[in-house]
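WARN retry 2 of 3 for item q-0093 after timeout on previous attempt; input resubmitted unchanged.
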Amino acid sequence: MSRQASEILMKYWGYPSFRPMQEEIIESVHAGNDTLALLPTGGGKSICFQVPAMMKDGLCLVITPLIALMKDQVHNLKQKNIPAAAVFSGMHPNEVEIVYNQAVFGRLKFLYVSPERLTTERFLTVFRRMNINLIAVDESHCISQWGYDFRPPYLLIHEIRPYFPKVPILALTATATKKVVLDIMEKLHFRSSNVFQSSYERKNLTYNVILDADKFGHLVRIFQRMSSGSGIVYVRNRRRTRELADYLTARQVPATFYHAGLDGSQRDARQKAWMQGRVKVMVATNAFGMGIDKPDVRIVVHMDLPDSLEAYFQEAGRAGRDGNQAQAYLLVSDQDAEQLQNNLNTSYPPIEQVRTVYQALGNYLQLPIGSGKDLSFDFQLAEFVQLYNFSVLETFNSLQLLEKEGLIMFGQQLKTVSKIFIQASREDLYRFQIEQPNYNEFVKTILRTYPGIFTDFVNLYETELARKSELTVQRVQVMLNYMNKLGLITYVPLTDIPQLLFLSERIDPQDIQLSRENYADRKASAAEKVQSVIDFVYNDLKCRSLQLLAYFGEEHNKRCGKCDVCVQRNRLELTDIEYNSIKESMKILLSNKAASMEEIVSFVTAYPETKVLEAVRWMIDHHILQQIDGERYIFRQLLTRKL
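OK item q-0093 returned
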C-alpha cells in the first residue's frame, strides 16, 4: 500500500514523501477503518483523504462548511486532471443537477458538499446511487457542541452511513480538546475508537502576549523589526482593517486590508498582492487565511482578544508554515477582557429578538408560512438591517442562532464567475441560428470558445466573449439573457452577493424555540472559552506554549524559552520555585494593605535582597503589582482577570 500511496503522491502532487503522520492516517483509511485525524494548521489534512480516495474505485464525498475551501480544492484538483466538483448554496439548479449526474455516473472522483446539503431529499436520492469509497468530514470539531464552531447539520452526517455501511469515515480537524475528540467519534458513530494526533507543539512558533495601552505604536515597532517574509494582523471589525492598514503604510510598513464587505475584484487583487509579496502586511478580519497556504508568514498579530483558544491557535498557526522561526503576538489593553465578555453577551440575543428577526426575514423575502424549504436567496445584511432598523450585530447573531437551529443557512460572500450551459440539442441550436441570423456568429463564437458546453457548466467571461464577438459587454449580456429566456442555454451571471438558504419551510415565529443545547449550554461553553482566553492572557508565570498545550490536553515540562513569559523569567535568573515562594510571601504581607519596597524586602527574609527586588520589578512590569501613593505597592485586583 505504501508504495502505491507514494506513487500517487508523486504523480499528482509532486511530493517525494509524506509529512509526519499522513502515511499512517492513509493506511488506516485504506484498511477501511473509521479514523479521526488531528493535524495542525498547514499539516496537510487534504492529502489524508485525497490520496486514499485515488487508490480505490469510486467517489470520495467531502463534507466541509467552508465554501471558499471547497472552490479552492476543486480548482486545484482539476488542475491536476482529477475530476472534482462542489455543490453549495447559490448554484443554479441545473448546475447542481449536472454535478449530481456526474457523481452518479462515475465521472467524478471528489464531490464536495456542505453539511446542510445532506438534509435535502434530492441529495439523499442521488447519494444512494453513487459509488462511494470514502466519506471525509473536514472541520469535524463543528459536530461537537463543546467545540468552538458548533454546526447542528453536522449531527446528521451519521444518518447517511447506513447507505454505505462498509465505507470508512475520515474526520479531520486542526484543534480539539479531549472532550471534543470523544464527542466527534461518538456523533459520527465510529465503529471503534481510532485517533491519530500529532503534537500541538509548534517549536518554530513563539507566542507573545503584550500588555500595552498603545497598541498601534507597538504594532508598528513589531513590523519595523520584521526583516523578511510577510505578516497578518487580525481585528474584529471591518472599519479597523482600513484604519490599521493606513496607519502602517503611513509609517513605511506596506500594508493592505481585507474583509467580506469588499467586492470580489478588490479582495482578489489584495490577496494576490499579499501572496506575491508586493505588500508585506494584510490587515483582516479572522476569516482571512482559511485555505491559504503562504509559507513565509513570519508574524501574526491579534489586536483584539479571540473568542477561544482554539480560534487563536488556528489563526496564530498561519505563521511559520515553512518551518522557520515565526512570532505570534496578542496585543492587550486593560479594557479588552471586559469587551470580550460584552461580546459574549451580545452573541446570545433574547429569544424575542431572534423571533423578530425571523419574522422580518420572511417578510423581506416575501415567503408565506409553510413555504421556502431548500430555496436560496440573494441576501444583503446591510440592506436588511437598514430597512427594519435593526442592530447589525444583534441581527447577525440572531441569524447564527437560527442557523444553529437548522432553520436557515447564511452563506459566505463569495465571488462567483458567470457560467453557461447549453441545454438545447445541437439540432435545436442550429435551427435557432437559421431563424435568428444576427445570432449566428455569436453562437459560433461561444461554441469555439467554450468546449464541453453541451455536457457541463463552464466559466464564462463576458469581456472575453465581447472582444471575440466584436460586441459590447452589455450587448453580450442582452443576447445571453435572451437565449436563456428561450430555454436554449442556462446563463448564470456573475454574482458577489451572500446567499441565504431556507433549510425548512417558514414557520410561525412563535413556534421558534431555542434548544438548551444551542442556547444555554452553548452560552455556558462559550463563557468557559472566554475565561480560558482571559486566564491565558494574565497568566504570566507559565510559558505560553505550555499553557496552550495543556489546554489541548498535552502535558510538557520543557519551556519554549522564547515567549514573553520565558524571556522575562530568563532575565530574572530565578528558578520557578524561588519566584513562586517570593510571590507567596508577598501575598501574606499585601493581603490587607499596601507596602513600600523597603517593607517588602524586610518581610521576605528567605531570599537575598537582589532576588526579591528582581521579582518585584518583574511583577510591576507585568502589572501583577500596582503602585499607589507614589511609593507603596499592592496586588492588582483579581477582578480584571476573573470576569
